[in-house]
Write a structure and sequence with these properties.
Order of helices and strands: HHHH
Oligomer: single chain
Shape: elongated
Radius of gyration: 22 Å
Number of helices: 4
Distance between the termini: 13 Å
Length: 120
């Protein structure tokens, strides 16, 4: 009964857990294992690159300057570099799609290759 929550957590964290499956290369036929694991690993690389790119574009390249005036008046001047915002929006559009596709491939790989399931 404890295997179901572990499998669920493993599936949700597929961008991390897929890398542990490469430790079992010698236990499986090479063609089946490469065919079922390599696409998921490629999506994991794409996911991490997209996430890093989004974080860099939204956090590191965002520049702001604020001025506060004295007395009761508050004047605020903001400078924001919005040149990279469209690129960050495109990355944010594809990031959930990459995650969902990887999750689907991760959860359905045992059904497509039933003879190569790992013995627990």
């Amino acid at each position: 009964m404890t295997k179901a929550p572990i499998r669920f957590a493993s599936a949700l964290l597929w961008p991390i857990t897929i890398w542990t499956s490469f430790a079992h290369l010698d236990e499986h036929p090479a063609d089946d294992y490469v065919e079922r694991t390599t696409p998921i690993a490629a999506l994991s690389v794409a996911f991490w690159l997209a996430l890093a790119g989004y974080l860099v574009l939204t956090l590191a390249l965002q520049q702001r300057i604020a001025l506060v005036a004295q007395e009761d008046a508050l004047v605020q001047l903001r400078y924001s570099d919005n040149r990279w915002r469209p690129l960050a929006d495109v990355i944010l559009y594809f990031l959930p799609a990459i995650y969902a596709l990887g999750l689907w491939l991760f959860t359905s790989r045992e059904a497509h290759f039933p003879g190569t399931a790992r013995k627990a």
